[in-house]
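Illustration: SnoaL-like domain-containing protein.
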Amino acid sequence: MIVAITIKKKVVVTATDILQVNNCINGFLQCLDEGDGKGMASLFAENGTCEVVRINKKFEGPKEIESFCINLHEKFKDTTHFESNPVITFNEVHEKETRAVNRSYWTGVKEGVIISYGIHEDTFTKDTKINKWKFQHRIIKHIWSAR
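Result:
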């Protein structure tokens, strides 16, 4: 996969930063396909949120995100999800804090047929206690769905 990276201002970004953000983006869908709610929740900051525009719902914190993953996996058990065309931008929000944002496309495939696709819009923050990037907020938008 090719990842487009944009760096604004003089922000120091390492290959590890880029890899961690990319792994969050891809890990989200792998956790969904495997029904790994705890794994998905671990990709988010403690107060992180995941918003699904189509159903007008926002899930906040580890318990709600874990439950969201398990419920969605049950609903789409035989579906495989793919992430494509991520564009990650790192920028300084405050003097001492760097944020990353992403906009990418997702696709749901069942039995070789695309059943839905849409856009992910993400904000990431770095958990300085463990030196790891995590989702602060993910917005899931549906462009088209067979349902």
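Reading the tokens back as a structure: The chain has a mean pLDDT of 92.
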